[in-house]
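Thread amino acids onto this structure.
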């Protein structure tokens, strides 16, 4: 289904920029199988009978010109699970981050329709102060050809070296999606060099949890759809008390007497064999 070997060039690119872009990642025979999942999922047709953890857009209920997002669709759909829990993602994230294994902390199914609005610039790891260590590594897989005009994902080069800031501002559909980024850059005297993920359908990118990223309006007449796997080190645990970012949603999976991130909710997707 997916294939990647992290070689020294990719490792060096990642260390320098905080992301890598891969033109061919998903076997194209699977493309339509994944695309065909989008409508049923956003209609609330869940194969496993389990609702995803977050579901911000529904047919007939919400405006058409926003970016539609489901979080943890893997719980609702077995094909989505087969990709976001794929060992190649776990191994690639681990190799890039020097981890010995990876768990899935969350997935996203993202659908930016024609005219679909922005997603504000942010750092993924800023949302997970409720786990130790507070880090993340993301694999973003595009199901459509992407371009700047389509409101593709964009990254600030080298921003993974700028430390982590608490999440601020609007995530969904801000008028100025670079507002928080510009404020941060001004206050900290940072120069912004932006890279756009322009890949054919089936392409992907991987980014560090500290890398600033966001996306603009889709001004084309075509859809821009992506499946995203957010990973953490395999031996991460719940922070005993913090509940910032998405903690208000995900701390409910904490056991009463333990800080363990239970595999039923945070699946192990790859671990180094000694
Ligand atoms: O696809 C997008 O526009 C944003 C995706 C994103 O924020 C992420 O993958 O972390």
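Threaded sequence (274 positions):
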């Amino acid at each position: 289904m997916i294939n990647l070997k992290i070689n020294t060039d990719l490792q060096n690119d990642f260390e320098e920029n905080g992301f890598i872009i891969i033109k061919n990642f998903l076997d194209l025979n699977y493309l339509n199988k994944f695309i065909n999942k989008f409508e049923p999922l956003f209609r609330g047709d869940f194969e496993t009978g389990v609702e995803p953890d977050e579901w911000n857009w529904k047919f007939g209920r919400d405006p058409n010109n926003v970016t539609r997002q489901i979080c943890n669709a893997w719980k609702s759909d077995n094909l989505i699970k087969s990709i976001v829990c794929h060992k190649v993602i776990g191994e690639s994230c681990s190799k890039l981050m020097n981890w010995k294994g990876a768990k899935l902390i969350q997935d996203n199914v993202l659908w930016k329709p024609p005219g679909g609005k922005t997603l504000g610039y942010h750092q993924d790891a800023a949302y997970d102060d409720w786990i130790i260590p507070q880090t993340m590594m993301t694999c973003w897989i595009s199901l459509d050809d992407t371009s700047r005009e389509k409101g593709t994902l964009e990254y600030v080069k080298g921003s993974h070296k700028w430390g982590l800031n608490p999440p601020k501002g609007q995530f969904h559909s801000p008028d100025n999606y670079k507002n928080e980024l510009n404020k941060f850059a001004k206050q900290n005297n940072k120069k912004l060099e932006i890279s756009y993920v322009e890949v054919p359908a089936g392409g992907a990118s991987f980014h560090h949890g500290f890398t600033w990223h966001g996306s603009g309006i889709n001004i084309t007449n075509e859809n821009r759809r992506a499946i995203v796997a957010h990973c953490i080190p395999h031996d991460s645990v719940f922070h005993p008390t913090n509940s910032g970012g998405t903690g208000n949603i995900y701390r409910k999976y904490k056991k009463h007497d333990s800080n363990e991130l239970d595999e039923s909710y945070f699946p192990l997707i790859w671990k180094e064999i000694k």
